[in-house]
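Ticket #4471: complex job returned nothing on first submit. Input attached below:
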Amino acid sequence: MPTINIVQAVNQALKEEMRRDDRIVVLGEDVGRDGGVFRATEGLYDEFGPDRVMDTPLAESGIIGTAIGMAIYGLNPVPEIQFLDFIYPAFDQIVTNLAKLRYRSGGQYSCHLVVRAPYGGGIKGGHYHSQSSEAYFTHTAGLKVVIPSSPYDTKGLLLSSLRDPDPIIFLEPKRIYRAVKGEIPEGEFTVPIGKARIAREGRDVSILAYGAMLHVAMDAAEAAKKNGVEADVVDLRTLVPLDIDAILSSVQKTGRVIIVHEAPRTSGFGAEISAQIAERAIEYLKGPILRVTGYDTPFPYTLEEYYLPSVPKVLKAIEKLMQY
Amino acid sequence: MNSSHYLIDSGRRNRRFLTQTEQQEEQESLSHIEGDMLQVISLEGKINAQLEPKLSVEDLKKLYKTMVLTRVLDTKCMNMQRQGRIGFYVPCAGQEAAQIGSAFAATAEDWIVPTYRDQGVALIRGLDLRKLIAHLMGNSSDSMMGKQMPNHWGFSEIHFMSVASPIAAQLPVATGIAMSMKLKKKDTIVLAYHGDGATSEGDFHAAYNFAGVYKAPVIFICENNGWAISVPVARQTAAATLAIKAEAYGFDGVRVDGNDILAVYKATKLAIDRARSGGGPTMIECLTYRMGPHSTSDDPTKYRTKEEIEFWKKRDPIERFKNYLELRGVWNQDFENKARTVVDEEINRAIEEEEKIPPPETSSIFKDVYAEEPASLREQEKEELSYESSSKE
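Support reply: We reran it on our side without changes. The output follows.
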């Protein structure tokens, strides 16, 4: 089985599906000749030409807005937002049109498309190249939010997303674009949207994470082993729809929950998971639900490593919970 | 090709040499109708034979009847809202020529991306009147399934795109539909409607810019009715006209007397022909007037003068067209009476029928959020239905 990284997984999924489905068009800033600032769309322009791989004007609302129009008229567009931090000019298009079209038209119209955006910190990018704003999208009915953490999931989830009938926000953890490598099978395979993955089995504490933080959670779980603590690590993979059943079965097994995400704590997605666990499984809990998250500050530049969740921070939470 | 040179005029006026007082006076006057604009029927009823489109008597009658239908329906809907029979309404009186004249130039395969004030467009496209009324009532026959407030329509059977309230949000979508038509090598076009207020929004810029860059087959119909709720067009822009904005995006903007249905038709037809043959977008600024309030929720006497309203009453697009038809020997009082009787009956019947239709089922709240209802929504649906059954007990 070939070993590839996450950015190659994105590239392969797009390339292979574009060969299968001529309705797919890729559009965005620098996605064509340049192959994308992270090289995710490299080679697509040469293979598919400017009609299917469009270097657009520099305007996010135009990219998403026109992609919605193209989707309505029978194409399968994959707009790229260069950094999730730049998506805000397109926020109205996403919330007003993309998320609501099917609903507001009573099902007469729909616009399936996959908005791809690299997100998250750890690359010394400051406020505007580091944010994790997934919660805005999970709070908008009509969108699905998918966040892979491995090359296998990236390729499999992106293929599922390209074939899904609903609009999808597909967030790529750019910090591990190249750092995380993994084997993928030859040929076509998909990973279903809405199914979490048990990344590690353990009886003592459940660590719930997604994207780049899955790897922090895994490293912390390994480290906790030394103290005799066995952590169950759940890779959520999709936030909407959320695989609440997988979360609950882990929680029922361990009775302890730690949620790890990079996004600021207040109203972060961890708050939602926490509430759902409290509503459905409070009787299983042996201690409080803890969150290890980014702080409620803008994303700092020089001191980003202090801002981001880390293995010691997760270990601290494990310790606190085990002693509760 | 030659008649298309009419499309080149973007109605520039040289404001640079006006004194400050003159500029101020201009802003406060009714100036948005002055200046160069395409006109076929003058206010006095004179016809510019060179520009007069060759329409059959049947077509002329259809246009006139649809204008009357739109106006009568408008009045009835305002009244129905006052009587509490519909929740809200956005009237379009005064803008019938701009709407019906432009849409009449498109074919059934072309797509319309409308605003919430474009009922005239839907009606000339042949929308079943009952569908329109059902939507205003939000009953279970409503194509929107009661999901949207009145005037937030969408009718796929006439390629009439679904509407959102945020101004100009439809415009990049319209450009995208046109880009898709071009990529798929269709010879169809998009008519994208917006008002004067929309020209201030970022999405106006994005949509026009993408349309220009990709030479998308989209015609932007700007219904400049002078007012964005209470803000006059002079407060939206310091530009001499709205039409000149198109020039900066690399395509033509033309000013048209928006209360002259033949001028609007003529300009739109030329622009559509050009777009269909690969010539790209055009902006048509229709100078018109919103005779009524913005919606049933505002009182325009707070911000508009009686003089202004009187000024525009004399420029009523239906009267203008009627004079023309009379000159052509198409209109007489008998025709008028018959047309009004038919329209009245049609509307009354549609209202009567639709008022009998019950509201949508409660569970419809949870449908069409996604293609398939997810487990989380099934759970919330069950919760809602449990309140209903317990309140019945």
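Chain A has twelve helices and 14 strands. Closing as resolved unless it happens again.
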